[in-house]
Design goal:
Number of helices: 7
Distance between the termini: 23 Å
Radius of gyration: 25 Å
Strand content: 25-35%
Largest sheet: 8 strands, antiparallel
Amino acid sequence: MGPRWGLLGLLLAAGCCLLESKRRSSPHVIRVSYSSATEDCPGLPLFSAEGYVNDELITRYESRTRKMHPRVNWINTLEKEDPRFYDRYTSILRDDQEDFQENVYMLQKRYNQSGGYHIVQMIITCEVREDGTRSGRWQYGYDGRHFLKYDMGTSSWFAADKEALLIKWKWESETAIMQRFRGYLESTCTEWMKKNEHYGLNAPLRKEPPMVKMSSRTELMDGMETHICEPYGFYPREIDAFWTRDGEVWLQDTFHKSVAPNADGTYHYWLSIQIDPQERDRYQCYVDHDGLPEPLELALKVPQSRFNLWYIIGAAAAGIIVVCAIIGILSFRRFKKGDDKPKNDPPCTRSLITSS
């Protein structure tokens, strides 16, 4: 088990096309994530690798297709300049897939686990700040917890347990591995970031205006109304969205979630407010974004009546009862045929570490 360097290609695929590097005041961050599991699950393949620049998904590889797929149009500039680009790095990632699968089974043996669902993840992050200083982190996770971590700024290691400590000692004892590892974080990643800024400078600024979904409901206990405003599908990430009352920003009784990425590289946001229904006409959801010709001011919707709500709940409950009855009959017939062995579905929850 050792640090993988095939992901350098994925980082370069992102770093060569650093988008809007001169237009943003925020630090420039490249992040690559590998994950490998013991079972293929919906939404989580056996192996996947993703590359991000400034939190934007640039490219992705997964075991189901065994190909590297760009997620932004301007990254195709690389293929035009180097026709073998995708083939070369796809081949590297296929080798990484095999090695990572071996790592999963190796850790299972170290922890005396005979089977079950397990997942290994590796995240490498490098950053160039506004003042030109650099930092980098390498993290290795197992079953959703941090296993081994190295911080470039402090040259410090974190080992979660004795198994991680043994691997740390092994790597530290191999000079070639450590030189390659530190050189990658301290120079290669950030040099490619700076060297290829012109790709982003020449690329047009991508703008995707937000679509907005408004929904509402009446709280059965106190009769108050909860209204939800959901801007989604927008790019870039920066967005102004808030509630107004009589044209003024209103923060009281409001809730919101952080802006989050979508699979296609766009973003979504969510904010809610609880109000007295008699004052509904005083409130609006205000949304402003670079992709919009002018800000949106959206009125609140009238919630569905309580009668209709209970009708829907009753219909849904009746449907569930019918489905359960059918399942019960089928299960009884299967039992009658002797097929009474329990069948366990794979736990396809996304138990991944997060970059920190």
